[in-house]
Amino acid sequence: MASFSTTLASSMMLTLLLLSFCEAKDIVVGGKTDAWKVPSSESDSLNHWAESSRFRIGDSLVWKYDAQKDSVLQVNKEAYVNCNTTNPIAEHKDGNTKVALDRSGPFYFISGVKGNCEKGEKLVVVVLSTRHRLISPAPSPMEFEGGPAVAPTSGASSLKGGLLVVLAVLAWGLF
Hints:
By secondary structure, the protein is an alpha/beta fold. The chain contains five helices and eight strands. The chain starts with a helix and ends with a helix.
């Protein structure tokens, strides 16, 4: 009977752990509503934020900005590196932009305001593939763009993951 209880508890904890990795999230770019702007310094760059975040297929990025003063352009790597605003993949001007991360790999974003991208208002987000969710660290956007980058991150995921590990250890000890 004790063996069954241990197996059941272990299975339940593993299921909870795996489910926590599968939840899609809406992630506010930069972790705050006023983050989409020309950074005051390199350390204030959104790519710096992105490097410390994990993005998964199914997550969505959310920008909150003044639609009268800015916009968000989704672009390819070349347009990102060259700050080219002429041929975006998508253009968002509503002030409350939501972009679904529907595949693994890099996603590139720049400001649609002339000169802002050159001043650092840009973002590259790297979405992890399904097979790398549990074990690999988040790749640096530097690997995809050739220059420093900063992106959004959330401490909530790591807190939840840590809590699940503690619960699993406690449950294991009880049985």
